Each structure stands twice: as C-alpha cells, then as structure tokens.
C-alpha cells in the first residue's frame, strides 16, 4: 500500500514536470549549452596531423567478400568495423608508408556471419582474427616487432574480444590471447571486467545516421511523454527462465511499471519510434546481454535524457562526453524506484540536460556518417588513438623476444580459417 500511495503522490509532480518540459515556447527558447572545460575541448579536437595510420591490405575473404555475401551487415549495430575501414582508407590520417605509421589497422569483419534473424554469430571470429594476424606477420615486419602493441582492432561485439554474447561464457573465454597487446576499439565497456582490456577505446554502437536524420521533428515539438522505452524485457529464446537476461533489470522495469501512466513502455517497435523519442523527456537505456545499448545513441541524437541502467558501465568517449551531466544513472538494484528517482529531479536540472543534449557536437560524436563529417565518431576514435601517443619504450620487443602464447585459447579458436 505504501508504494501505491508514493506513486499516487509522484504522479501529479510528474505531470507538472511533463507540462513544463513540453511547453513549446520554453523549450524553443532554451537553445544549446556548450560543454565546458577540457571535455568540450577534447570533443572538438581535430585528429589530422596528430597521428598516422597504416591500413593493411588483406585478401578480400577477410572483409569485402563477407559483406558481399550478406549486405545486412551494413545495417546492424556492429557495422562500425566496416565503416571504420572505409573511413580510414580515404582519411587524411592514412599513410601508405608503414615506416612512418603510429598505428596499424587490420580490417577484419568478424560480425558479418549472421543468422536468418540477423544476429551475428561469433563462432568463427577468433579464427578469423588469428588467421589475419598470421597473414600480416608473414607479409610485414611490424606486428612481429611489437606483437601488436602498436596495432588496433575493432571488435564491436557484445563483450568485445571475448567473442560471445552471454556474459558467463564470455568471461570463461576471456579476451582472445593474441590480442592482449593490441588496442581494442569496442562497444563493450564495463569496469573491472575480464572482457575489458586496459587501454581499450569504448565507442558507440552503429545506428544509421541518414535514417535517423530523416525522422527529425521540429525542435519546438512538445515532449509529452515522460518515460519511454521499446525493446525486449525477456529474451525467452536465449534465457527461458527470464532471470539472466539484462541481469533481471529489464524484467523488473516491466513488472513494476507496465501499468504506470508515466511510463510508455512496450515490446512493440512502432514506425514512429524515432519521433516518439523526440517527444519524450526520459528514455530508458537498460543493459541487455551487455551493458551498452543502441538506445544510448538514439537518446543523445534525439535530445531525450538517457536513463542509464547498467552498473559499472564505461560509456563511449567518456573523456569527451560529460555523461554525468547529460544522463541519469540508476543502479540495477534501484529499478523498482525509477518513478521516484525521475520525478525527484529538479526542473532546472532537466532543462540543463536538455540544453547540453541540444549541442550539435554532442550528437555528432555519437554517429558514423558516410561520408565522414567533422567531429563525428570516426574522429573521436582517432582522437582517442592520438591521446595514446607516443608509444612507450616497452612497446618494442628485443630481437627474438616473445610475449604472446599462440597456442593458448579455446580448442576451436586454434583451428585454421
């Protein structure tokens, strides 16, 4: 009964907040707010002239042929590995002289083996990576002199270079041993997790920029939805009992708020999904199998305050984007208090978050447009790589020195590809 009375008291406050946030004149007059301090400077950095990248030319079986067999790879949330390759090939930071390169990039498309339902299979990914590394180490001397310490790989899977979508299995596998010296560019980021290698660069998942931009509504459109979410609450096909997926957080959202009038939540994915996010004050961004979610990108682009429910998450470009200022963090154990937490946020704080989210640089940093645009996510990745320079003396090995154990790993990973 106590919880019911608390919700009843919270509802008028939520409605008052909603009315204030949806006032057309007030929202239109807010404008944008520049990110202050070093974060804003980092966000607006230009990486050109600060690093040079050598792109290995691999046989097309590692990349182009894979996309040719299944073009769906160009649209799913892991497509960053394809578009980063395309971007680097024509980028001003690319060098054709490997002797002057700061970084070496090996373009392997490891998420393009899709099920009929469009879900990536990572069974072959470790074998592909190992095979590609064997190829570059045979044809160029640069891998061998550092065993990959000046190389970076894009591994945009649920749990990065652990190459598995279920956390327990990913932890059991660990980061692919041959990548332990390399820098990983990945969507996965969680503190103190075996699948997060120190020094990794956490990036946003891919969401189609052109498609999103065609769904923009006028900026003066009222935000008449208080809390919005569309997506799975239970993954019954992979987690029949319903307690493991999203560590139970999504199930808790549904069970506690499916009948709450402040919450517009459903498993349906309407054609007005993007427009609805632009009409919402808060957008839930709970973890799924992994901590991150494409909704994070969508919320930022559409100016909807992201409510991040993923304990210990490391967010994309965290040294450039002030996530604490633009988002709301809710602990997984506190999901049952979501209504109280959100209705207790002062109006001035909500308005400031909206002004920061309206900053074009913030939105740009979350997107991978083709062709690339200034300050977009491609450039933020290069900025991250540039900030890791110069390489320390420990990067280069002595003649004959070996660090990595090529025979280490799961038996299936050691098979040739």
From TrEMBL:
- The Exostosin GT47 domain covers which part of the protein? 50-345
Work out whether the entry's keyword set contains Lyase.
no
Write the record's keywords in alphabetical order, separated by commas.
Answer: Glycosyltransferase, Golgi apparatus, Signal, Signal-anchor, Transferase, Transmembrane
User: Localized where?
Assistant: Golgi apparatus membrane
Q: Which residues form the signal peptide?
A: 1-29
Q: Which GO terms describe its cellular component?
A: Golgi membrane
Topology with respect to the bilayer = Single-pass type II membrane protein
Carries keyword Nucleotide-binding?
no
Q: Name one GO molecular function term.
A: glycosyltransferase activity
Kindly give the InterPro entries that the UniProt entry links to this protein: Exostosin, Exostosin_GT47
What is the first-listed, main subcellular location in coarse terms? Golgi
Q: Which family does it belong to?
A: Belongs to the glycosyltransferase 47 family.
Q: What is this protein called?
A: Exostosin GT47 domain-containing protein
